[in-house]
Amino acid sequence: MKIKFKMKLNENHFKKYSLETRQNLxxxxxxxxxxxxxxxxxxxxxxxxxxxxxxxxMRILVDADFSVGQLHIVxxxxxxxxxxxxxxxxxxxxxxxxxxxxxDVYAKHKSKCGFIFIDLRFLETxx
Length: 127
Description:
With 127 residues, this protein is an alpha+beta fold. It has a single domain (4-8, 17-124), classed as Phosphatidylinositol 3-kinase Catalytic Subunit, Chain A, domain 1 (Ubiquitin-like (UB roll)), CATH 3.10.20.90. The chain has 4 helices and 6 strands, in the order E-H-E-H-E-H-E-E-H-E. The termini are far apart.
């Protein structure tokens, strides 16, 4: 399982660039990585502070054949999430089922600029 992670220190990275610039970035990423899906994973500020993340936004390239469940596992490891914390992945305010394949999620939910914007939400389940 290989996913390329790139942490962005600026929390509003995609809001400061024009749509055309973001589209060009996505196009160049897709040309260089043909079997990958470009995603932007964002956290709430309180969660980024709690888990000592350097930013509230993360750009990643995910293998198109990955299931959302596999992405879920990789993100949990990367963040260092405790076993008592639940993590949920949302795209366009829709909870992603773990059995979905990222290629299908990309085809259904990609934005105008070509990225999938995933919102990560945490919930303490015990105590």
